[in-house]
Amino acid sequence: MMWMLRFILDGFFYASILFLISSGLTLIFSVAGIINLAHGCLYMLGAYIAATLIKSLIDTPYAILAFPVAAFIVGLLGLFIERFIIRWIYGRDLVYQLLLTFGLALILSDITRIVFGTEPIYVTKLYINTGVIDILGSFYPVYNFIVIIVSLIIGCLIWIILYKTRIGMMIRACALDREMSEAIGLNTGNVFSLTFLMGAILAGISGALVVPQSAAMLGIDADALVESFIVIVIGGVGSIKGAFIGSLLIGLIRSFGIVFFPEIELAIAYLVMIVVLLVRPRGLFGREFRVA
Amino acid sequence: MILEVKSVHVELNGVRILRGVSLSVGRGEIVMLIGRNGAGKTTTIKSIMGLVPVKSGRIVFDGRDITGMKTHKIARMGIGYAPEDRRVFADLTVEENIEIAIGNPSERDEILREVYTIFPDLKRLASRRSGYLSGGEQKMLAIARALALKPKLLLLDEPFEGLAPLVVRRLYESIWKIREKGISILIAESNITHVPKLADRVYVIERGEIVFEGSPEETLKSERVLKILRGY
Q1: Which of A34, A189, B74, B194 sits at 20 to 30 Å (Cα–Cα) from B172?
Q2: Pick among 3.40.50.300, 3.20.20.80, 1.50.10.10, 3.30.70.100: CATH of B3-230
């Protein structure tokens, strides 16, 4: 039974990372109606920035600052991208958004390559340093637990912001009807900027959190983007709850799939997505949505 | 005058929707803009809110030119808008729908109290998700939301459309209460029957032009107006 628990915990770990990435993606889509193909790159940048900082601070207690700093820098980048680039294509045809954000993704990955080089950056030392704990006779890395707990906390924070604050009320109103939100005096431009800031912070923090366990390397952006698309399609586009359930599902499929059917692990994720779409075309928690 | 629309032209997709519409609303006045479907009522209201681009002409509100201004700024200056299709935020509760339009959170309690005295039914429904309300309740909520802005002027687009007679009477009472507070109101309507109950002054719009202006009595007596509204 012990091995079982281990896979479940691994599944939760993957799910945590996936949840953070995909909730940012789904938030931006539901509010601004933008399918941000550069979201994976923000995640990758978060990983690189965190890896670089951790590497230079590894022997000091300040290494932990790498996580909020990476999230903050990526958040600012997201804000910048919204204010100066994406702002011009709201309400335009979907093709413009896809072309623009895909172009952005290419530019961002090139910038990442130029700034950080082509070699992966490993900071496994931090992962090892946090140690292991004994669960019913089997050792499990403490770091994975930290990530699971941190993402649960962040998930709660998102919920509180969206459903318990005035800002969250504005975000939800804008997601439902942008024009009407303007007409009751909301500066929807600012709400959109804020949403991008939040989404980018989520991408940045997830990239930073994944780094000690794996590595910062080129190409992780595409994997992250594809998997988070699977997650939000399963969960229902625009739904944070959906992103949570979808991540859990894909996280567990991945951790069990790697052991039992390693060749078709990703295929199973797609299969689940297809089944969900056949049964519930809008995803598990999806509702009708409009592109703003 | 709280609002002056001066020969406003609006073109959408190359079609001339408004051809020099001019109208005005005095302080504390209820003005009705009557016209058939497609005559340009909704576009007139949307052009005041900055929701459609004005090609030429000027819109002056409370002494300031608001032509081309951003919609949220126009709203904050004191124009409340309740659209024809209600457009309440379906996932938000009734109270959240009202709360969200309140500009200064410290006035929240006071404004909620005021809005609920005008629309007592909404108080009972405060925690209900607005998507579950009836059409009439949503109409009231749309107006209540516009009131939460503390407007000087209210724009109501077809507020009575599709309402049962009893609900219409309740809405009259609410509108009278709003006027007592000194808020000016511009109502777009396709139905002339509400004129005697509400209007201080009437404009008739046809094919994007104001074709008649007068008192309620003059409007109801005018053969020309009736002919325009009948369409023959």
Answers
A1: B74
A2: 3.40.50.300
